[in-house]
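Extended Data, panel c. Modelled sequence:
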Amino acid sequence: MRSIITIGRQFGTGGHEIGQKLAEKLGIPCYDKELIKRVSQESGLCPEILENNDERPTSSFLYNLVMDTYSFGITNSNYVDMPLSHKVFLAQFDTIKKIANDGPCVIVGRCADYALSDYDNVLNLFIYGDINKRIERVMKKYNVSEKDAKDMILKKDKQRASYYNYYSTKKWGKAETYSLCVDSTVLGRDGTVELLCQFVNDYEQRIQA
């Protein structure tokens, strides 16, 4: 039986490609940007709105409001009055659960590990990397200067951390938050995929023994 795998990632580590390749090797679907399309279909929110609010931080005050709403149930009236960022978070949260109910898969980002915290057979992975090597990769991929690449990395990582830390009870990038943290700049993307694939296979053999 295949696992449900969530992947958190620093910007510039190749987390998207690693998630896709890992899913291919395991023979299960991968959801990253594909999740936006699924959320749009499930919620009725247009893809542009979802993309503009994707993994964007909110204030702690608004966070408390959205979680109170989620805890006590959503009515038509309070959903209509809910800020857009709340609607996006709840739509992603519910869709992630539906995807997991469909079967084993890889889900990249979007607090998926938090959404699936009550699910069995879930492995939560985090991909990080050397900042200088990440800068080199971002420079090449986006054709930007060293300064711009570093600024992009710092901004995106801060954004992802703020989003995760508001909506989750754990801390983004902290080892204790995940089942395994891997530096993708050591083995490269393909080597990292091989390592993670072996880790997943060993885990699944152990729980099925």
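The two ends are 12 Å apart (CA to CA). This feature is highlighted in the accompanying rendering.
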